[in-house]
Structure formats: structure tokens, C-alpha cells
Amino acid sequence: MDMKFHAGGSRIMTCDQKEPRTSSDIKKLLIIALVILPICMVGATAAYGFIVWGLQMLWLGLPGA
Known about the structure:
The chain is mainly alpha-helical. It is built from one helix and two strands; from the N terminus they run E-E-H.
């Protein structure tokens, strides 16, 4: 892997070189896509339903009433 060094000592990769994907990156992606995002979406849907239920009970009334 070619690295360029700047005056400050920092390293950067050249634009035409990319690091290969590792199995840990794929595992992280699968955990995010198959575990974390579905849990967040269920939580967001439940929160939205609870907000609508609370608004209907306190101020708006039942639909069609």
C-alpha cells in the first residue's frame, strides 16, 4: 500500500489505492443492517403510534368523531 507523508507527519493513501474490505467490516455492516436498523425502525414506529394515540386521547378526539 503506497502512503504519502506530509510535512506534519500525517499519512494519506493515494487516490487510486483502496484498502481491501475485511470480514470485520462486513460483520459490522450486517449487524447494522439486520439488527440495529430494524430495532430503531420498530422503536420509531411505536413512538409515532404513541404520539398519535396521546393526541387523540387528549386533544383531537377519535377519528370520525
